[in-house]
Every structure is written in structure tokens, then in C-alpha cells.
Specification:
Chain lengths: 316, 124
């Protein structure tokens, strides 16, 4: 029976179809939800991937930062290594300095202590002439020692950057003249070429020591005629002290202005010296904004140069 | 006892001469400023004692010259008399050197010389 074949449709008045429809809608809803969930999951995955990317970028940045730090470490280590090498060189120089300074201080002290002991022990039996000679020796060696102590203290002030100086404008010709007056007999034979209006900006005491040292060196190690030349060079004035002696051995020139450096020549073996003079000259010149150098004096002899700041108004 | 003084500082030469003048058994037979000159004097004067400085006027340093002095005068006693305190140990290792004395200890030079040469102290 046809009617009986569709009893349900008939019986529920279309409710079955509606149920199907609902079911389908439900299924479709479910699909929609599923799709939403999938979309959510996808979004979540994308978010995670984004996070991973961000993490990766952060990691790369961190890695870069670490590499930079390592580079800095390497640079720092190289700097520390270099500083260590410098310190070692300073230590070695210091050890050498102490050994030579100790010897040079003991030498005059040997005479001072020796003759003072003799005076003390033998006073009653010594004749007047011997006493006087002992005392004269003590005085001379005390002066030697005093000069050496002065040199050591000056050098120490130079190295500590603690020089007490007061640069002022000095007429160079007058300073050279004063230096020659103080230089004794040998100084009278020195010829000078210096324009009267050349002026330099330097501490007067330091200038006296620089010129005095160059001159004494010329007398001790060089040969006459000794001459002094001063010329304007740009913003500076160069003072040159020239002699006609054997000159400085070429292999020694690079160490010439180093403390305690003394060339091994027949002349330096005869002439006593501490090897401090030229290192002090260089230190004083540099502290006054100047410089020093050595040149051979053709055809023979030495030329010691000091370059000093010129007065702005000074002319040839 | 003849003494040879090898020393380039005239004041120290004078000091050594004066020190030995207080014992008539010693006489300074010669003074040289360099080891090279000292060898000549050692040959000619045959000293029993050599007072030898280290930093000298010639090429040779005192500590290096000592063996040569011993060769020239084997019986002479050698005192290395120097301001180089750091040479005390190397001087002790050098068989040619019989004694080391710092120049600032010159008051001990005569007693040391008396002992080394076997003369002993002066009787009063």
C-alpha cells in the first residue's frame, strides 16, 4: 500500500524530513565547527611557527651577541697580552735601572765612606795635608753623588709625568750665552750662530739643562771646533750642537736617548758617565712640547738637535 | 808584600793606596786603569795581591780579567773590589777570584788582605 509505504511522512506530518534537514544542518554545523577548529589549529600552528621564527631571530641575535662578546674577549685578551709584554719590558728596564743606579750611587759613596772612615779612625795620626785631601775628595764625590741623585729624581719625575715646569718666552741667544758662561773654559771656544730675535717657549731651567748637557757631551766625547746653530723651522726653533769628534757609532744611534745607554767606544771607556744625560734631555724637551734627535755631522762628528716651540712673533 | 791596584777611578786608587799605607808589610807596586795595562804591571812587579775593579778603562771587565791575572802571577791573591753588588755570586763561582769586597766596605780591605795573604793582623 502506497500510503502504508510512507506512513512516517504521513504520520509525523513532515517531521522526518525536517529531522533529516536538521541532521544535515547539524552535520554542516559540525563541519563548520570542525573547519573553525582546524582554522584555529592552523592559526595556533602559525602562531607557534611565528613564535619559532621570533625565537629563531632572537637566538640568532643572541648568537651574534655571544660571538661579539667572544670577539671582544679575543681583543681584550690580545690587549692584556700586549699590556703584559709592555709590563715585562718595563720590569726588565726597571731591573736594569736598579742595578746600574745602585752601582753608580755606590761609586761616589765608596770614596765618601772610605775617606770619612779613615778620617775618623786615623785623625790623630794624619798630617794636615792628608786630612785636607780626604775632605776635598769627600766633597767632590758628594757633589758627584748629588748630581746623580738630581738626575735620577729628574728622570723619575719625567717618567711619572710629574715635572714641575713653567714654560716662558725666552730669547734663545741670551739663554745660549748664559749656558756658555756657566760651561767654563771649553765654552769660550764655542762659536754661535743665532738670530737675536729668535725666542722659544720653554721652562728656562729645562732649557739650561738641555743645552748644558749637549755642550758637555760635545766637550767630553767630541772634538773642537764645537758650534751652536739655531734656526727657525716652521712653528719651531731648532738648536743644533755640532762637534768634530768621532760621532756616534751608527748601531748605537737608536739607543742614544735611552736611559743608561752608553756606547762602547774608546772615548766612553775613558770618560765617566751614567748614561742618564740624553734620556733626561729628551724627557725635558718632550715635556716642553719639543723633540730631540741626532744626526751625523758630515764629514765627521756629531750633531745633537733639540726642537722647541717658537714664539709666534719670532722671525729669522 | 807587593800590591797591584787595577782601578780606573783616581779617588779609589788613592783610597786603596792610603788603606795599605797603614800596614808597612804591604807596598803598592803599581796602579793600572785597565786590565790590559795591569797584565804588564803584573808581569814586571809580580805582586802577591791584586786589588781588581770590575768596570775598567779598557776592553776587559775585572771578572773576566781575573783568570788571565792568575795565569800571569799564579801565586797572587785576587780581590774583586767593586761597586757591582750583583757580582758577589759570579765572583764566588770564578776560581781565579779569592775574595769579593764591595767598594763601600773599604774599611775591611786591609784586614781581608792580611788574612788572604797569610800575614795576619799587625801586632800592636
Amino acid at each position: 500500500m502506497t500510503n502504508s509505504e510512507t506512513p512516517v511522512l504521513e504520520a509525523d506530518g513532515g517531521a522526518g524530513a525536517a529531522n533529516y534537514g536538521k541532521a544535515i544542518l547539524n552535520i554542516l554545523d559540525d563541519f563548520g565547527e570542525e573547519r573553525n577548529r582546524q582554522a584555529d589549529s592552523l592559526r595556533a600552528i602559525l602562531n607557534v611557527l611565528e613564535d619559532i621564527d621570533a625565537e629563531k631571530i632572537q637566538l640568532e641575535a643572541n648568537q651574534k651577541a655571544i660571538l661579539n662578546v667572544l670577539d671582544d674577549f679575543d681583543e681584550e685578551r690580545a690587549r692584556v697580552k700586549e699590556a703584559n709584554a709592555d709590563l715585562q719590558a718595563v720590569n726588565e728596564a726597571m731591573r736594569g735601572f736598579v742595578a746600574v743606579a745602585a752601582h753608580d750611587l755606590r761609586s761616589p759613596l765608596a770614596s765618601i765612606v772610605g775617606f770619612a772612615s779613615l778620617l775618623n779612625a786615623k785623625w790623630a795620626t794624619l798630617i794636615e795635608e792628608d786630612r785636607r785631601e780626604f775632605v776635598a775628595t769627600i766633597e767632590r764625590q758628594s757633589q758627584n753623588m748629588s748630581r746623580l741623585v738630581d738626575d735620577l729624581l729628574t728622570l723619575s719625575s719625567i717618567e711619572a709625568g710629574a715635572l714641575n715646569m713653567r714654560p716662558e718666552l725666552i730669547v734663545l741667544g741670551d739663554a745660549i750665552e748664559r749656558c756658555l758662561e756657566a760651561g767654563g773654559g771649553d765654552a769660550a771656544s764655542v762659536s754661535v750662530s743665532c738670530s737675536p730675535d729668535l725666542a722659544v717657549l720653554v721652562d728656562p731651567h729645562d732649557l739650561g739643562r738641555i743645552l748644558g748637557n749637549y755642550l758637555q757631551n760635545a766637550f767630553k766625547y767630541g772634538e773642537p771646533p764645537v758650534r751652536i746653530e739655531a734656526v727657525r723651522v716652521g712653528d719651531s726653533v731648532e738648536v743644533r750642537v755640532l762637534d768634530n769628534g768621532p760621532g756616534v757609532p751608527p748601531e748605537f744611534v737608536s739607543r742614544l736617548f735611552t736611559k743608561f745607554a752608553r756606547a762602547e767606544t774608546a772615548n766612553t771607556r775613558v770618560q765617566k758617565g751614567t748614561g742618564l744625560g740624553l734620556s733626561i734631555v729628551r724627557g725635558l724637551a718632550e715635556a716642553n712640547g719639543g723633540a730631540t734627535r741626532y744626526e751625523p755631522n758630515a764629514p765627521n762628528g756629531s750633531c745633537f738637535v733639540v726642537r722647541l716651540r717658537a714664539d709666534a712673533g719670532s722671525r729669522w | 808584600m807587593k800590591v797591584l791596584v787595577v782601578e780606573d777611578d783616581p779617588d779609589i786608587q788613592f783610597l786603596i793606596r792610603t788603606v795599605f799605607s797603614y800596614d808597612v808589610r804591604f807596598s803598592v807596586a803599581g796602579e793600572a786603569a785597565s786590565a790590559e795595562d795591569g797584565f804588564e804591571l803584573a808581569r814586571s812587579s809580580e805582586p802577591g795581591l791584586i786589588v781588581l775593579d770590575h768596570g775598567l778603562a779598557g776592553e776587559l771587565k775585572g771578572i773576566d780579567a781575573a783568570p788571565k791575572f792568575k795565569e800571569v802571577v799564579p801565586n797572587a791573591k785576587i780581590v774583586l773590589f767593586t761597586a757591582h753588588a750583583e757580582l758577589r755570586v759570579p765572583a764566588g763561582d770564578e776560581p781565579a777570584i779569592d775574595a769579593f769586597l764591595l767598594k763601600t766596605d773599604s774599611a775591611h780591605l786591609l784586614p781581608l788582605a792580611q788574612r788572604l795573604t797569610g800575614l795576619g793582623p799587625l801586632s800592636a
